[in-house]
Amino acid sequence: PEPGRTIAIQAGPGHDVLIVTDSIGDDQVEAWPDRVVFHRGATGSPGANPPGSVTVVTSTGFEEMHIYGTQGGYDTAWLSDTLWQNGADTAARMKFEPALGHVKWITARSYLRIKLFELVDVFGGGNNDRAIFFDGAGDEVFEGQWGLSRRTGPGYDVRAHGFPSVVAYSQVGADRARLVDSVFKDELQFKPHKTELFDQSTGGNVYRVTVRGFPLIEAEALSPQDRDKAALWDTVFDDLITATPEQLVFARLLAEARRPMLILRGFEFVKVRDSAGGQDQATVMTPLPYDLIFGAGWDVRTE
């Protein structure tokens, strides 16, 4: 369509597919399970996208939609799983794959793929909604907490809002995960193969954030006096815990150095499980403002 125009596309019977390509300006997508609105950018070279002009494409009824951000600009997308007609829960699934540059958003009614957009916000709302963040090739940061989780890296920022279940993976690079507690009474479980943060009262039914494979995790409890708990499982190798009033660091002892795996701050109660093997050591600088309990098999030194 020409600049300044608005068009509407209605799908018919059968499995209909919509493909939309962006402009050289800044484009915006708004999507619900039953409709998509595409706003063509108002910036760009003269003649291609005159200043102030906007082209809007509204589509409804498509079972499959692909929207590409390949022409440049700073493209953004806003996706919500709430049906605009009646607010029904559609059990949305969000999958972000940085290596392929796309966000997949799947509901019972539709399949939407946003490719190469710089900023994508996805809003969940139902108890069955789930967001999955896969790993990219670069060094990335994942931030996980109740209500908002996001993954940032070279050229992208993908944010999941209101998803009760969030999973993030790391396989390559010096990725870092940062987990922050909620207003609830929270529990962190740190294990060699995964780390989870969730609300204690329902055992994670309100929210659960799971990270797998991250070389470094920082977990912080910011809500005061709600007795947030951390439970730590060691590896089968030689491990070292350094506990100071400010933080607790869990590290793997290697031949050449120690490699921090977890930095813990602000949790009121920390329990270290029984040693699973290796020569596990701990240095504790007292007094501590939090309760710290060690299981069997740890060589604990107090300073």
Can you characterise this structure?
- With 303 residues, this protein is mainly β.
- The chain contains no helices and 29 strands.
- The protein has strands spanning 6-10, 17-21, 28-32, 35-39, 56-60, 64-68, 76-80, 93-97, 102-106, 111-115, 119-123, 130-133, 141-144, 148-153, 156-161, 165-169, 176-180, 186-190, 195-199, 208-212, 216-220, 229-232, 239-243, 248-253, 258-265, 269-272, 281-284, 291-294, 299-302.
- The strands form 2 sheets. Strands 1-5-4-3-7-11-15-14-13-17-21-25-24-23-27-29 form a 16-stranded mixed β-sheet, with no helix packed on it. It has a 13-stranded mixed β-sheet with strand order 2-6-10-9-8-12-16-20-19-18-22-26-28, with no helix packed on it.
- The protein is elongated, with a radius of gyration of 23 Å.
- It starts with 5 loop residues before the first strand and ends with a strand.
Ordered list of secondary-structure elements with their pairings:
Layout: E1 6-10, E2 17-21, E3 28-32, E4 35-39, E5 56-60, E6 64-68, E7 76-80, E8 93-97, E9 102-106, E10 111-115, E11 119-123, E12 130-133, E13 141-144, E14 148-153, E15 156-161, E16 165-169, E17 176-180, E18 186-190, E19 195-199, E20 208-212, E21 216-220, E22 229-232, E23 239-243, E24 248-253, E25 258-265, E26 269-272, E27 281-284, E28 291-294, E29 299-302
Parallel strand pairs: 1-5, 2-6, 3-7, 6-10, 7-11, 8-12, 11-15, 12-16, 13-17, 16-20, 17-21, 18-22, 21-25, 22-26, 23-27, 26-28, 27-29
Antiparallel strand pairs: 3-4, 4-5, 8-9, 9-10, 13-14, 14-15, 18-19, 19-20, 23-24, 24-25
